[in-house]
Amino acid sequence: MVSLSLIGYKIKKNPIITLLLPFIVLVSVYFVVFRTDDSILGIGSLPLGNHKWAHEMEHTWYFPFTSRFKMPRYSYKTQHNWLFNDRVEDIIPEGHIAHYDLNKLRSTPDAAVDKERVLILTPLQSFDQRYWINILQLTYPRELIELGFIIPRTKTGEEALKQLEIAIKNVQSDKKNQRFAKVTILKQDSQSFDKLQEKERHALNVQKERRSAMALARNELLFSTIGPHTSWVLWLDADIIETPMNLIQDMTAHDKAVLAANVFQRYYDEEKKEDNVRPYDFNNWQESDTSRELASSMQPDEIILEGYAEIATYRPLMAYFHDKNQPITEEMMLDGVGGGCTLVKAEVHRDGAMFPSFPFYHLIETEGFAKMAKRLNYEVYGLPNYLVYHKEEFN
Amino acid sequence: MKPSNTSKWIKSSIISILGSVITIILLLRLILPSSLSLTASIFKPYVPNFKNVPGVEFYDLRNYQGNKDGWQRGDKILFCVPLRDAAEHLPRFFNHLNTMTYPHNLIDLSFLVSDSSDDTMGVLLSNLQNAQSQKDKSKRFGNIEIFEKDFGQIIGQSFSDRHGFAAQGPRRKLMARARNWLGSVAIKPYHSWVYWRDVDVETIPETIMEDLMHHDKDVIVPNVWRPLPDWLGNIQPYDLNSWKESEGGAQLAESLDEDAVIVEGYPEYATWRPHLAYMRDPNGDPEEEMELDGIGGVSILSKAKVFRTGSHFPAFSFQKHAETEAFGKLSRAMNYNVVGLPHYVIWHIYEPSTEDLKHMAWMAEEEKRKVEETRIKEFYDKIWISGFDDVRDEWETEKSDILLNIDLTSASEGKVEVDWSDDDDKMNFAHAALADSGQGSLNDKTKNEKVNDANTNNNAGQAHKAAGLEVAPDFDPNL
C-alpha cells in the first residue's frame, strides 16, 4: 500500500501527467462522443452526442424495424426456366368459397349405410396386379372410396406409376357407378422409401433409416389426401394381395379408433409338401415388461424393432395369437401396429396422430403412430383371427 | 481443293449445322410452349396424363418444396386462420389481407370457426364476399375454404381466463386439436408454403410473406410485441412462446410427469430460457436470425413439406410441451430448422386483463375525483381571498411602532434561581409534577384543536352547501 501511494505521489508530481491528462481526456471524449465514422461503444454510425433512441427517430413505439435498415426490394417478375422447364400444369381447382361442417362428420359401425367415406392409402413401391384386383373386388360402395398412392422417385417407382396409370384409367373411364370417388397420386421428391432392396430390407441396421423414410412417405400421403369428407382411413400395403371382400365393412363394424388386421403369408411348405400360411407382420404387439425395461435403458435416439434376435423384447405378438378355431371378430388390445392393413378413424389422424420419422418413445413409423394415438387417448386394437395375406417373397 | 480450304469448309459447315440445330430447338420450344412432352420426355421422368380422366389427380411433390422467391415462381401459400369469437377482429384482419403484396391469387385461405357465440361466421362470410368481388381481379384470393368444428369449450375467452396459469395445459391441448383439424384438412398437395396467423394482429408489414419467405427456412416466426397504454410502459414483449431451450428448461422438463405441459411466461415454471421477444434491439437489423426450439403461433410461415411430412401441433404433451411450442420441438426432432427474427416485429393488439380493467376503472374514478378536487380548491381559494384580509404586511410596518416603548431587555433583570441539589426525592417529585402539568396542557391542546377542527369542518361544509357542491364526509381539504 505504501509503495502504491508512493507511485501515486510520484505520478502526481510528474509535470508531464499534468500536461497530458487533460489532453488525453479531451481526445477520448471526442472519440466517444463526437466521432461519426465508427463508434467505439458500438452504437452504430450516429455520434453519441446526438444519439437518439429508435422510438425517437421513428416517432412511434410501434415499428416493425428501424428505418436505418432497409428490407430488400422484391421483384415480382415471374421466373421460370423457359428452356428446361420441368413443371407440368397442375389441375388445381378454381377459386371459390367452400364451406364444410366437420361437426357432421361421423365414423360409425354402419359405415356403408351411413355413407361414410373411406380413404385407402398405399405407399406404392411396385405395382402388383393382384393388389389391384383385390381392391376392385371390395364390396364397399366405390363412390364412397377414395384412393391415395405415393410413389418413390426411382426406376421401379416409375414402372409402378405406368402400370397404375393404365389400371386407373380403365376403372375411371368405365361406367360412372363403377368409378372411385377420387384418386390422388403423388410422386415423392426423394427416392427415399424404395432405395433399399428387398433382400437387405430386413437387416437391422438399415431398418431405422428405411422405416423413417417410410414414415415420411406415409405422412405426405396422409396429409395431402385427407379431406373434409373422410371418415375412415385404411392403410393397405401394396404387398397385400388378398383380403376378405367385405374388409371395410367388417373392420368398421368394430368401431375402434385404430384396428389392425393380422397379416399372414401363403407359402409352399417343402416338408409337408402342401400350401400353408405363416405369420408375416410382427409389428402388431402388446408391450411387455422386458420391452419397457429395454426402452428405459436406451439412449434417446435408439429404437426398438420387433423380430430381431439382437433385441429380445418378449412382447406378445398378435401374429402368434392366430387361432383358426376362434371367431374372426375376436379383438385384442395392442400397443404397436404395423401398416399392412390397418383401419384408422379419420379423427385420430386429424387430432395429429402421424407416423413419427424419428424415435418417439423409442418407436418409429407405424409403431410410433400407435403410441401417439394412445398419447391422444385413443385405443388401439387388433384382430388376431382376421387374416389378410402378404405376397410371397423370393430371395 | 487445298487442305486449308477443306478444313475451313468443314469448320463453317459444323457451325452452320450447330446453329440450325439450336434454332430448330428454340423454334420448337417457342412454337409448342404448352406441349411439354418433347422437353419433358428428354429432361423429365415419366408424367402420367390424367387430363380427361374424372376424379384422378397427379402431383409431383418436387414442384411444391417451397422456393425462397416463391412469389416469382408461383408458390401457393395456404393461409390458415383459427377463429373463435373473432367477429370484432375480422375487419382489421381483412384490411391486412387486402394490403398484402404477395400475389393474392397464390394465397389460399382456410378458416376454422369453432365454438363461437358471436356472429363470427356471418362477419367472415360478408368480408370474404367483399374480398372476392373486388373490381381489381388481382386483389382476389385463390381457393377459400371454411371449416366448422366445435371442440367444446373448457375455458372462457376473456384475457385473464385464457392466460391464467392453471388453464394453460388443457387449453393449449384443445387449441392444438383445433389447429390440427384445420391444418390436416386444408393442406393440398399443391401448396408450397403454409402460413398460420392469428386474427388479432394490429400492425404488420404488407410484405410479411416475402420478408419471412426470403430467409428460406423451414419454419420461421417474427418477433411479436404489443402496444400498451402509457401507464403500463407503452410497449411490451407479447409472445413468450418463442424461445431457445435452456439447461434450466431441460431440467424442469425432466422433473415433470409425462402429461405435464410447460408453459412459458409463468413464474410457476421458471425455465430461464432466452426468449425471442426479449432479444429485440429496436435499432437492430431486421434480417438477423435466431435459432429457436419452441415457437409462438401468432404468425408462423413454414414450408408445406414440414406439415406434409407429419409435423403438427401436438395435442398431447410432446417433450413436456403442447401446441405451437411443441410444434417447434417436433419440427426440430424431424430435422427441420426453426428460426425467429428478433428485430423484425409485428404488433399484437392490446387487450386489457381483468386487473388492467380494474386499474383502468380506478384511473377513471381518480380522474373524476381530481377534477372535482380542483373545482373545490378554486372555490376555496376564492373564499379565502375574499373572506380574510392579509394583514401581515401591515403588521411588519406597525410592529416597530407598537413595540417602540417596551424595553425587552428589562425582562432579563429578574434573577432565575435553579436548585441543582442531588436530592432524588425532590427530583422525582419535580419530574412527576412536570409530567402532570405537561399532560394536562397537552390534553387541553388537543381539546382545543378538536373544537377548532369541528368548526372548520362545519364551516367548510356550510361553504360547500352554499356553493352547491357535494362533499364527501371524509374529504380533507389539506390533501
UniProtKB/TrEMBL annotation, chain A:
Q: Name one GO biological process term.
A: cell wall mannoprotein biosynthetic process
Q: Which residues form a coiled coil?
A: none
**Gene Ontology cellular component list:** endoplasmic reticulum membrane; mannan polymerase complex
Annotated GO MF terms: alpha-1,6-mannosyltransferase activity
Which InterPro entries does this entry report, sorted A to Z? Answer: Mannan_Polymerase_Subunit (IPR052086), Nucleotide-diphossugar_trans (IPR029044)
Q: Which Pfam families match?
A: Anp1
Q: How does it sit in the membrane?
A: Single-pass type II membrane protein
Give me the segments passing through the membrane.
Answer: 16-34
**Location(s) in or outside the cell:** Endoplasmic reticulum membrane; Golgi apparatus membrane
Q: Which domain of life is it from?
A: Eukaryota
- Please provide the record's keywords in A-Z order: Glycosyltransferase, Golgi apparatus, Membrane, Signal-anchor, Transferase, Transmembrane, Transmembrane helix
Family label: Belongs to the ANP1/MMN9/VAN1 family.
- The protein's name: Similar to Saccharomyces cerevisiae YPL050C MNN9 Subunit of Golgi mannosyltransferase complex also containing Anp1p
Q: Which organism is it from?
A: Maudiozyma barnettii
From TrEMBL, chain B:
Q: Which InterPro entries match?
A: Mannan_Polymerase_Subunit, Nucleotide-diphossugar_trans
Q: Which UniProt keywords apply?
A: Glycosyltransferase, Golgi apparatus, Membrane, Signal-anchor, Transferase, Transmembrane, Transmembrane helix
For the region Disordered, give the residue spans: 437-479
Q: Which Gene3D superfamilies match?
A: Spore Coat Polysaccharide Biosynthesis Protein SpsA, Chain A
Q: Which organism is it from?
A: Maudiozyma barnettii
- Where in the sequence is the signal peptide annotated? none
Q: What topology in the membrane does the UniProt record assign?
A: Single-pass type II membrane protein
Taxonomic lineage: Eukaryota, Fungi, Dikarya, Ascomycota, Saccharomycotina
Coarsely, its chief localization is endoplasmic reticulum
Q: What is the official name of this protein in its record?
A: Similar to Saccharomyces cerevisiae YEL036C ANP1 Subunit of the alpha-1,6 mannosyltransferase complex
Q: Which PANTHER family match?
A: MANNAN POLYMERASE II, MANNAN POLYMERASE II COMPLEX ANP1 SUBUNIT
What is one Gene Ontology biological process annotated in the Swiss-Prot or TrEMBL record?
protein N-linked glycosylation
The family database entries (Pfam families) matched by this protein are listed as: Anp1
Q: Where in the cell is it found?
A: Endoplasmic reticulum membrane; Golgi apparatus membrane
| UniProt GO molecular function | alpha-1,6-mannosyltransferase activity
Protein family membership: Belongs to the ANP1/MMN9/VAN1 family.
